[in-house]
Amino acid sequence: MNVQSVLKMYTRDKWSLIYIPSIILFSSFFVNIIVSFLIPSDEPFYTGGISSVMVYMFVFGILSIAHLFPFAIGLSVRRIDFFTGNVIMGLISSTTLAVLLYIFSVIENSTNGWGNRLHFFHFPYVNDGTIWEQIVMYILLITMLYFTGSLIASFFLRYGGKGMLISALVIVLLGTIATLLVSYYDAWIDIFNWFVGKTAVGIAYWFIPFILIYLIASYFFLKRSTI
């Protein structure tokens, strides 16, 4: 079996690939639009409901490895073929979702927030760039989340629950030390100013090296997993 066979495994599970993210996104949207009409106000109504589908892409990255990798190995799929298929599917899913989010943001902005000043898809700063910049920003963000999930699942397959626990403790420890150092040197304002001086897509470009590192690490873990 080859990469094409791996892609077929993904596309057969239409619930995980299409139905569930659609249900999550649009159920959150309809709830928020109903709430916006129930709260009379002349001010714009901002909501973070779009984050629900972002979280799902992170979870999907975990489940795609955890569920399909053992099954694929049982069918004698080469690890490099499974990894390649997962990368391709992640890029296709991220690009498709990014384009859809951009289209909905344009519709929302042109209809004055669906006629009631609702900001579910369109936000200042995030959607201030050109068409290309907005779509690229979404692609990089969603891809980052998807491959972060894939990295976690790959790490678990390689090192198991004990490895996950130790790594979580190390991450918490390093995060605590970093926070203390930033506070000690009063660097929070400098960090805030750095972000303020960047565009949304400019910040998203910084995801690229992390994505590449995650991909390399994921392949290494899958290659050496005992499954």
Automatic annotation (TrEMBL):
Descriptive protein name: ABC transporter permease
Domain of life: Bacteria
Segments traversing the membrane: 17-41, 53-75, 87-107, 135-157, 164-183, 203-222
Keyword Membrane: yes
Key word Ion transport present: no
Keywords, sorted A to Z: Membrane, Transmembrane, Transmembrane helix
